[in-house]
Every structure is written in C-alpha cells, then in structure tokens.
Write a structure and sequence with these properties.
The chain has 302 residues and is mainly α. Helix content is 80%, strand content 0%. Helix 4 packs parallel to helix 6, helix 6 runs antiparallel to helix 7 and helix 9 packs antiparallel against helix 10.
Length: 302
Amino acid sequence: MRSALEIAEEFDGLNSPRTNMFVANLAAVLNEQGKRDEAAPLYRRAWMAFRRELGDKHVMTLKQANILGVVHWQNGEFEEAIRVFEKVLADGEGVWKPDNPQRLESLLNLAINYREAKRFDSAIHVLEEMLTLPLPAPMAQDCRNEWLEDLMLGRRVEKFEAWTNAEIQRQRDAKVPPPILAGQLVSAGIGFVRMEQWDKAEPLLRECVELRRKNMPGTWNTFYAISALGEVQFRLGATEEAEALLLEGGQGIESATFPESMVASGEAKRRRIEAYRRLIEFYESSSNQDAAQKWRDRVELD
C-alpha cells in the first residue's frame, strides 16, 4: 500500500511544500511511536527543505532544527545534537532576542548535551550565560540546578565551593528557618561527597545533622543526613564514629515515613538503599561479612 508521502512525491515532486509537510508530519508520527531512528532522517530532510524554501533564519526553520536536535539527543547521539543546537543558536542571532523562549530552550538543550558528551566546561559556560538573563522562575531554578550538577560532575570544586559558601551565608544573614538552612547545608555537603571532597563535606553535614536532630527529630531527612555524615567519617578514617552514624542513619531511615510522592516516584527506596549500601561498604572494608550480609538482605527486601 502506497503511503501519502509516496503519492505526494510522485504528484508534487520530492521537494514541493506539500511533500515537505508530509515529511515533517510523518517524522512527528514516528517520533510519537518511539521510532526515533526512523524519525531522525525525516526530520533532517524536513529541516533541509525549510532551509531551502525559507532560509536558515526563518522561525519555522529554527523550530524544525530544534526538534531534530532533540531527536538526536533522545537517540543518544549527543555530538550530533550539539552540532544541530549550535547551528540553531548561530542562525538565531539577530532573529531572537536574548530571552526568546525558543532560544532559551535551545541553550538549555545544548548545555544538557554538552554534559552528556562530558564537555562540562562548555555546559557550564552556556548555563552561566543563561543565568545572566531574565529567566522565568522555573527555568532559572532548572538552570541553577543543571549548573550545580555540571560543577559536581566536572569536579569544579572551587567554583562549587564559592557558590555554596555564598548561598549558605546569604541564608544565615536572612535568618531563614533552621530546616531551610539545613537543606542548603546537606545539599552542599552531598555535592562535596560526590566530588570526594570529604574534608569540605564534613562540617556542612555535621551542622546539618545538629540542626535536624534539634528541629526535625525522627524524620527521614535527618536520618539521611546522619548516614551521609557517617560515610564522610568513614572516608576520613574515624571508623568508630562512622559506624555509629551509619547504623543510626540506616536503621532510622529503614523505619522512617516518607511523603507519598517520594514513595510513588521510587525516591524513598533510592534513599533507603543508598544508606544500606554505605553500611555494606563499611562492613566489607572491615571484613565483617556477617554484618555486611545483613544489609545486603535489606537491599534485596526493599
């Protein structure tokens, strides 16, 4: 059975406007069906057609290119996606204002693909450019989170430390409630843990634990911070304190109540298993296989 695209190609020609619309629509259908490998060449064909008919700087051409970039991203073709997004942004110069929503979307897509390609400095540069713009509040928060993630993944310790110190001081000066300050402290501490900067993580997590024990006793948040502090003490060689903290955190988080949203998303399970795995690693390092097996069993049961 001949497709509508084949009929359009025969009667209107390979590059007619109607044929090109069929190409774009077919690409969209295939993409919706999850057939991205088939959709990508059709999206590229549609983009090239828009470039011929309307020019590189036409808003429809730019929109079609951005869609193609997203499809390459979804296919795990990060370098190809980067090339498309870089061209979109270059072609959009003089067409878009700096805070145009489509430009901002392309910038964020480019930054994410830089990260996927492990080009962290490039990702950080793009996000820092975005953070100078008057972004909508949700996008500003997304950019800030992506930027911090890239700093951690790229182990840009000095820049991460400067920002976290400034943010913590800002919250101290504003006299925010202790639970909010504790949240900032644990986020910074976990960031340093991810970068294996144990000595920088230790005072932040210790202060967080003190605040949460006083203001949020018995909550999953408190036990999570205690477990993280236990890992840091283990890495720093304070094994006796580490074991006590790891056990308190692991046993506490096992029986703690999580919000329904965290349970439904699987985040509650992830946090519990993270605490259990810290205990497994601790006991394996001391050749206490019985204790390690106990926590392995917890992982299996969760």
